[in-house]
Amino acid sequence: MVDPISIIGLVGQISDLIQRAYNYGKAVHDAQCDMRKLYTELLGLKGVLEQLEKLDMASAEPHIADLKRSNEFRKTLSSASELVGRLVENLNKKQTSSRRVNAFLWPWVKDDVIADIQDLERVKTWFIVVMMAESSTQMEVLMIESHEILNIAREGQARGKLKDQGLRSTMLQRRIAYFLNRRKERSDQAMDTTVLS
User: Fold this and answer.
1) Mind listing the pLDDT tens digit for each residue in 31-90?
2) d(Cα 174, Cα 176) in Å, to the nearest integer?
3) Hey, is 109 helix, strand or coil?
4) Distance CA 130, CA 174 (A)
5) Radius of gyration (Cα) for the chain, nearest Å?
């Protein structure tokens, strides 16, 4: 099933909208500040969506594909697409043939600009949280390994079998090095997968 709203398509729409907002901010009197905020948020959303697309392509994790098929993801992507469409419509409003008249016409009410910027922030934040969920799997592995290292240290202290302090610390260092090497190997494998994609 082909998704009617794709991330790549939305990135293209946002790129066009960024250019329109920039040009409009330059042309319309007192619009620079709000347009700057608007295209800054659009640039942020575009970057997040591009990163999400790369993450999807590079990920061997099945939960990313499941996430992209989820209703929440589709609703948020649809909401982002509707928001971008509304912004395009607003920037196309009230255009006259006179450049002087256009310089004083706002395409929408100032409060609506602020609301649209906040909507962009919300959508962007949701997608960032989605990307963080992908890296949370890696964080879980790190947490498990750090708990294993802590348990090893506690066992060594509780047992007290090793009388020599130097020998005890050497054993602990070896175990810690073992777990750190395992973590590095997993990280290298993840990097290799990303590079190959």
Assistant:
1) 677 788 887 888 999 988 888 777 665 555 566 666 777 777 888 888 889 888 888 887
2) 5
3) coil
4) 37
5) 26
